[in-house]
Amino acid sequence: MRSDGSQSAPLGLKIAAACGLLFLHLPILLIFVYAFTTEEKSFVWPPPGLTTQWFAVTWNRPDVWQALSLSVRVAAISTAIALVLGTLCSAAVSRTKFFGRETISLLVILPIALPGIITGIALRSAFALADIPFSFWTIVLGHATFCVVVVYNNAVARFRRTSGSMIEASMDLGADGFQTFRHVVLPNIATALLAGGMLAFALSFDEVIVTTFTAGQQQTLPIWMLEELIRPRQRPVTNVVAMVVMLVTLLPILAAYYLTRDGDQIAGSGK
Amino acid sequence: MSLDAAMVRATAPAILPGSGGLRGALSDLFWRKPKVLLLLMLLPPVLWLGIVYIGSLFALLAQSFFSIDEFSGLINREFTLKTYGDLFQAANLDIILRTVTMAALVTLASAVIAFPIAYYAARYARGRWKALFYLGIMLPLWSSYLVKIYAWKLILAKEGILTWLLAKLHLLWVLDAWLSLPIVGGNSLSVSFTGTFIVFVYVWLPFMILPVQAALERVPGNLVEASSDLGASPGQTFRNVLFPLALPGIVAGSIFTFSLTLGDYIIPQIIGTSRLFIGQAVYSQQGTAGNIPLAAAFTVVPIVIMGFYLWGAKRMGAFDAL
Which pLDDT score, from 0 to 100, does residue A6 have? Predict the structure, then answer.
């Protein structure tokens, strides 16, 4: 009798799946090659030569550093806000059933379910109506709003696996609410929060659609890249920045995967 | 409340003494009245999302009922439906139709490409392979959106790798023939609708794979075996068994691919023709044209379309596959 696991897939399916995965990954690999090309004016393939000089040029560009620094600060603060709001919300939703629970879940997911341009222009028109000038905080306001869902998703998945009787046991043994939170709840959800925080950071670091509406004249790294894509000034520098951005976003994703891989494979779903 | 807590402590000294102070009082309060704790936990996120997000959405909706004074360019803050009327001009209807067509095609293509990957990952991949597939879908999903678009600019450029590859295979005539077609063609792939289409499919594909895989994971393997035992060809098994069971997953994935394509303005701006999509229309109306009311009315279009779409998807049970 043939059992489920030992069976091998039909050849056609194997080829189709492999081609699909190649389609997803080859373009990303190409970025790593172009960062070393000697060609300055066009996207010619194959690269006429390989060089590392553009890394040095990029290193000495103050505009890149400014954009990078703004992106990192925005992502750090947005992640911190999202961690607090997302944890509170997931704890409330998963420990009790109350009226309007579904609405709360929907409210959290909405900023990411509706296209970014709607979030962006909605925030922009709200700033316009309320006469709020663009600043660092207007960017954070937008980013934190759609980062909450990432933390929320990760924390909810973990709470679902954490049994409520542990909290009761802790209380029975004489711990007060704060001690229970500190010594029982927090260690249980810590890795899920860390994973959620990393994904939120990656999401915020990379966000461009909402940011174009809330940044005014400020340049985050993705906005800097967008400018370069529309009006290229120095292509090799863009190539290097593209590679760095790719690495900066890939590392947190890998880390988040290893933190949550036992059991709940929910880390990234529902970006 | 702290008095209450003190009474309990006095009458039942055999149990641990309370920790006292504000901290103990709060802890007791949360234990007795879980609703207070619930309220305190919900208040910050609900206030934030309610004020920042829902508030902004209402601000947007309000703006769409304002109008712009065509002579002064100032925004007239009085209720009117004139701005919605402007949506029905031929040029604007064109934009809406073009975007919806693109979204439908992108959704269809993503479903076709996603299915084999999802099916293999759900049914055949085990252990290390399963993890590899999972990462193989997650990494492209989460890696930088702009860099992915940039990669395609490199690929589709006239001097880029695709032209080089086709030249090596002596297939350049196929590309030239395709580019000479009306509507889908253009000077090079990076300034044609075909290019826009490819990049849309590429960028949203992982959003389709995940829910389809989730739906297929729930199909018991013996169902497929039973179907072939009963004499169905692989094609028949796919049509009558696998596809209907995967459909909720495909619909769930299509929510993402459809909605994201409707709202995107960066992909068609970087890789595509000068003919606008809804997102670009919104962006240029609020930016250079300064016509925020019309931009707001434009964004209501994807919201309404997605509303109907979600309603239909819910009836098909797509939300269980998310």
Answer: 47
Alpha-carbon A77 to chain mean position: 14
What is the distance between the terminal CA atoms of chain A, rounded to a whole angstrom? Answer: 41
**Arch. (CATH architecture) of B87-321:** Orthogonal Bundle (1.10)
Q: Which residues of chain A make contact with B270, given a CB cutoff of 8 A?
A: 229-230
All structural domains of chain B with their residue ranges? 2-76, 87-321
Cβ pair A129:B282 closer than 8 A: no
Strand ranges for chain B from DSSP E: 67-68, 75-76
Angle at A151 (CA atoms; ends B132, A242), nearest 5 degrees: 60
Cβ-nearest to B42 among A13, A92, A225: A92
Here the ipTM equals: 0.82
pLDDT, one tens digit per residue, over A190-244 is 888 988 898 899 889 988 989 988 888 888 999 998 988 888 888 888 889 889 8
Cis amide linkage into residue A133, ω under 30° from 0:
no
Of B143, B164, B259, nearest to A250 by CB-CB distance is B143
Structure-token match 């999972």, residue found = B134
Q: Do A118 and B120 touch (CB under 8 A)?
A: no
Considering only the beta carbons, identify the residue of B119, B221, B270 that sits closest to A13.
B119
Domains of chain A: 8-51 (no CATH), 55-260 (1.10.3720.10)
pLDDT tens digits, one per residue of B24-51 = 788 878 877 878 888 888 888 888 888 8
Q: How many CB atoms lie within 10 A of CB B30?
A: 19
The structure's pTM equals 0.84
The angle at the Cα of B288, spanning B283 to B293, to the nearest 5 degrees, equals 60
Chain A residues whose beta carbon lies within 8 Å of the beta carbon of residue B202? 23-24, 27
Per DSSP, the residues of A16-60 read: HHHHHHHHHHHHHHHHHHHTTB---SS--SS-S-B-SHHHHHHHT
For residue range B181-199, what is the model confidence (pLDDT) as tens digits?
Answer: 888 888 888 888 999 999 9
